[in-house]
């Protein structure tokens, strides 16, 4: 897990040394290198250049680091957990303020927390409280009833659905040129036509 996400004001006011050089977030489980640079514990894997020797390269000064040249900085960790910060969603209106150690406990239940839309393709983040409205009014991937076949179709696919697959959408019958017959029935009529033709041929042979 990368560092702690902060509100913009905290990102601007906290000293640079508290931020991970890799993820640029507030250090989580700070690790210090022998060249004096800090990374989150989980971000260190991104510095590894050679999987066998576990040789790492510092992003700041390109120093080559052996695993024993990187250590957990307990002092830095304590200092960071005691920093007083605003809720990550301050700009959305949350007034919570507290120590970093309590930050994620708060944000996980914060009323301004944004969650991804239930349709994975959508990718939009919405406040929990606004999700229903997003799904009903905004989401391009919401299900809507097709006015021709009454089926539930993803809104973004409605045009394709109408043009290619909707059994209720009017389609041109290439036998009689009528264009007001639902596609499903055009096929049906075609089948009937073929069957009639077949019977006709058979009667001629007989
Ligand atoms: Zn360094
Ligand atoms: Zn990091
Ligand atoms: Zn909050
Ligand atoms: Zn959506
Ligand atoms: Zn349809």
How many helical elements?
Answer: 6
Question: Strand percentage, roughly?
Answer: 15-25%
Shape: elongated
Side-by-side strand order of the widest sheet? 2-1-6
Oligomer: single chain
Q: Please summarize the sheet with the most strands.
A: 3 strands, antiparallel
What distance separates the N and C termini? 80 Å
Helix and strand string, N-terminal first? HEEEEEEHEEHEEHEEHEEH
Structure class: alpha+beta
Low-confidence stretches: none
Overall pLDDT: 89
Number of strands: 14
Rg computed from alpha carbons, rounded to a whole number of angstroms: 31 Å
What ligands does this structure carry? zinc ion
Helix content class: 25-40%
Q: Would you summarize the structure shown here?
A:
This protein is an alpha+beta fold.
What does this structure look like?
The protein has 206 residues and is an alpha+beta fold. The chain has six helices and 14 strands. The chain has helices at 8-13, 74-81, 100-107, 131-138, 158-165, 183-205, and strands spanning 30-33, 38-40, 48-50, 55-57, 64-65, 70-72, 84-86, 97-99, 114-116, 125-127, 143-145, 152-154, 170-171, 181-182. Strands 2-1-6 form a three-stranded antiparallel beta sheet. The longest helix has 23 residues, at 183-205. The chain starts with 7 loop residues before the first helix and ends with a helix. Residues 2-3, 20, 22-23, 25, 39-40, 43 line the site of one zinc ion. One zinc ion is lined by residues 2-3, 20, 22-23, 25, 39-40, 43.
């Amino acid at each position: 897990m990368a560092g702690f996400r902060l509100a913009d004001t905290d990102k601007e006011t906290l000293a640079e040394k508290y931020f991970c050089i890799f993820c640029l977030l507030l250090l989580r489980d700070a690790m210090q290198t022998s060249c004096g640079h800090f990374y989150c514990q989980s971000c260190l894997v991104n510095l590894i250049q050679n999987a066998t020797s576990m040789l790492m390269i510092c992003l700041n000064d390109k120093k080559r680091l052996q695993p024993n040249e990187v250590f957990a900085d307990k002092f830095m960790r304590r200092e960071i957990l005691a920093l007083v910060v605003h809720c990550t969603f301050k700009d959305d209106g949350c007034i919570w303020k507290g120590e970093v150690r309590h930050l994620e406990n708060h944000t996980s239940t914060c009323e301004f927390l944004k969650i991804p839309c239930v349709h994975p393709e959508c990718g939009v983040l919405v406040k929990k409280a606004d999700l229903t409205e997003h799904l009903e009014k905004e989401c391009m991937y919401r299900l809507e009833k097709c006015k021709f076949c009454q089926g539930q179709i993803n809104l973004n696919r409605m045009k394709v659905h109408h043009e290619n697959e909707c059994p209720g959408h009017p389609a041109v019958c290439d036998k009689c040129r009528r264009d007001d017959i639902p596609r499903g029935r055009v096929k049906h009529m075609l089948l009937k036509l073929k069957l009639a033709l077949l019977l006709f041929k058979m009667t001629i042979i007989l």
